[in-house]
Request: fold
Amino acid sequence: MNDMRLTERNVASDTAKMRARKVQVYYGDNHALKDVDVDILDKTVTAFIGPSGCGKSTFLRCLNRMNDTIAGCRVEGEITLEAENIYDRRVDPVQLRAKVGMVFQKPNPFPKSIYDNVAYGPRIHGLTRSKAELDERVEQSLRRAALWNEVKDRLLSPGTGLSGGQQQRLCIARAVATEPEVLLMDEPCSALDPIATAQVEELIDELRENFSVVIVTHSMQQAARVSQKTAFFHLGHLVEYGDTGQIFTNPRDPRTESYITGRIG
Amino acid sequence: MSSSLFTQDARTTARNAAERRFRACGLAAIVLALAALVWLLISIFSAGAPAFRQAFMTFPVTLDEKALDKEGGRDPAKLSKVTTVSYAKLLALGLKAKAEDLGLETTGMKSKDFAKMISEESAASLRDRVLADPTLIGQTIEFTVLASGRVDGYYKGRVTMKTAVKDKNTSPEQLALADKLRAAGVLDIRFNWGFFTMPDASDKRPEAAGLGIAIVGSFLMMALVLVLSLPIGVAASVYLEEFAPKNRWTDLIEVNISNLAAVPSIVYGILGLSIFINFVGLPQSAPIVGGLVLTLMTLPRIIIPTRAALKAVPPSIRDAALGVGASPLQMVFHHVLPLAMPGILTGMIIGLAQALGESAPLLLIGMVAFVRDFPGGFFDPAAALPVQVYNWTVRGDPGFVERASGAIIVLLIFLLIMNAVAIVLRRRFERRW
Reply:
């Protein structure tokens, strides 16, 4: 794995943006996630790795309560955003999701124009006061998603007409347009070709300046390339969590070592 | 030794033969279905097309003061006591005078025979016209009458010289005179607007029967069904599909909706009779009751396709909307409903089309009644297109067979229009994306 640029890795901040303590997730009777403790640091890319079905996506979806939409799913324990428990009764998940944005595995732009896709979040949250301000927000978001130069001449053409990589970047632009504090990405590159993947990865690194990013990935190389912190999940347990360099070069748990060297998974 | 690819082994031959047989069966089924459809259309159109053409006669009628207003003075109360019999006599005289004027042979024709060539309906419309304008009395006016059902049928092949010999209502002499009148331009066959505008007529006047009230009644009911069942159906579907918890109760509701869609429509008629008429006390034969009954019948048939359309919206779109912080309601109204709209509209139109063609429940709430006055609103008695078809097919005069088929054609045209609207709306909604 000589493409791991471990030297570039320096955690920008030590303040925890989100904190998870003793998180349990059940799907009906199935105990899918057991005793997960994680701190998501501010302005940091955190990668969740692990074999399929290990619970990493489940945990990601706990962070903005997308699991609420799944019938029979139950979350216990405590997850806080800026010291506020997001599973508190008083929390409206809709408000939470404006602060904790999400990008999904498959690019899922709305079947509307590129402009409307990006403008949707600011519109429903009332983030802009005028059309000019909204235009500016759309442009800024598209620039952040490294898509502006490709689409600036066809903002009104449908978002579904873009290529797969462009669609995913459009989804990222849509997510950052609401100025979230945390951006969750659920295998954002698994449906993309290597070139588009490289673009998205580069983008993730840039997004780190403004947001804390949590990315679930199947590719250990990707985790190594983009993240500063890595968490390894296995069979519903958080096996190991630490600096990415340490996880990949000097794992403490034998299961982590087996996984990253390709013996389990 | 391996076998050659150039020769088919026994299994391959058998499989290919099975496929050919299956294809042949499928093709045969399609051909059969098409043939049945073509046959149906041909029989309906050949039987119904004549209903759109009608024989009219135009001649001068002298509105004799002695016959209509013996005392003079044009007292409306007295004028209204003069029955259509007197007017029918004047019409017969007018026709006779016209025939003699033209020098047409009328041997063997009594004045009763002239009267029989004219629809009884025309005496009534002449009376209406005189009552509306009594100054016409004493004048001679040019008046257009409907030819009687038999004369009309003669030009549509229903009546022949042969059948006329034994027919009490006509005679070969009348038909021969009709031919001469036609040659002279007195009788002509024109497009029958009255078929769309006139009310139903009694058993002996098929030539005057029209679909006017049935069209108005069906239109009123469809408007009510649309206005009630679209919002209720869509709201119920959205709630069940997007918001309702999945538990035993919602399962029960789901099963019940499916069962309701399969309940025979006449049961809804009984329900409507007992609830809307007997309990609530709404008037019989009224479009309000018909519309409500058809709404009840249509609701499950709209909810099922609407739910299917909502279900077909990819979950990734819901995730995307929720992911940027849309509330569930915003998710539904901004993303799910617009995407499901083509499917919802199709279900809606199919439901409406079924309701438009439904006669059984309407029979039970009295829409089978004979109605002559146009309804002024939802609470006045009216007829309905499919019930009118039923009504005409049970009548004795062969003239009504043609009317019934004509009504079916009108019904089919309405259904075609509705389907066309559905297709146009579908296109519009699909093009937006």
Summary: Chain A touches chain B at residues 64, 66, 69, 71, 94-98, 101-104, 106, 108-112, 120-121, 124-125, 158, 160, 171, 174-175, 177-178 (CB under 8 Å). Chain A has one domain: 2-107+181-260.
